[in-house]
Write a structure and sequence with these properties.
Strand order of the largest sheet: 1-2-3-5-4
GO molecular function, one term: nucleic acid binding
CATH topology of the largest domain: Translation Initiation Factor IF3
CATH class of the largest domain: Alpha Beta
Protein name: Stage V sporulation protein S
Helix content: 25-40%
Number of helices: 5
Oligomer: single chain
Number of strands: 9
Order of helices and strands: HEEHEHEEEHEHEE
Shape: globular
Number of domains: 2
């Protein structure tokens, strides 16, 4: 699996370019919520391990930059990088979670900022009693988000499992939409991605599992 390969060698953080918040020419940030720090622009063809290395390095040194993504391929790279960075940080007893936020009022554009937070590593979250929601390439993020929000309101533990680029993207978009749906309930969601294997159609396939942590706000 890719996660296992990633443990062999951590790619130096210097290989990833980290930028400051852009301006519109008059020193006014285009992204006000990103103005106070730096961010990583994730490319669809980016080196996943290099991005993971930058995230891990930033977590060891201080705050982790937000990851900016446009489109399913970029979102997939960013999520894999966060999952791999979590493995890099195990020996540092640091763990990571993320919260997706839409950067455009038109949520169908799939333009996201993934706000990555670090915390002290804890015992692995058990997903045995979770309601597992498999996400596919044809899943509609807003429909999934509605179902996800409903289960969270029922105080059920939920995890999402996705196989493939489009499915991973749909899962992240669903989490972003669910965050909006839950605002009136004064609840928020953090996601912790990891690599797992699932048995489907007689085969063992690599998948990304999103363990979800619900917070009261």
């Amino acid at each position: 699996m890719e996660a296992e390969d990633a443990l062999i060698q951590e790619v130096p953080a210097e290989e990833v370019v980290v930028e400051s918040a852009p301006t519109n020419g008059v020193n006014t940030p285009i992204e006000p919520d990103l103005a106070s720090g730096t961010f990583i622009k994730v490319s669809a063809k980016g080196n996943v391990k290099a991005v993971a290395g930058k995230i891990a390095h930033s977590a060891r040194e201080g705050e982790v930059p937000a990851a900016l993504c446009i489109g399913p391929e970029c979102i997939n790279v960013a999520i894999k990088a966060i999952a791999i960075a979590r493995t890099y940080l195990q020996q540092d007893t640091i763990d990571l979670s993320f919260q997706p936020a839409f950067r455009d009022a038109d949520r169908s554009k799939k333009s996201l900022a993934l706000y990555i937070a670090k915390g002290k590593a804890r015992a692995p979250i058990s997903t045995v009693d979770d309601v597992e929601m498999p996400i596919g390439s044809q899943s509609k993020p807003q429909v999934v988000a509605g179902a996800l929000a409903a289960r969270i309101r029922e105080e059920k533990s939920v995890c999402l499992t996705a196989i493939g680029i489009d499915a991973v993207s749909n899962a992240v978009l669903a989490i972003g939409n669910a965050r909006l749906y839950l605002e009136q309930d004064r609840k928020d969601i953090r996601a912790m991605p990891s690599f797992v294997q699932v048995h489907k159609n007689g085969r063992d396939l690599n998948a990304v599992r999103f363990a979800l942590v619900v917070e009261n706000i």
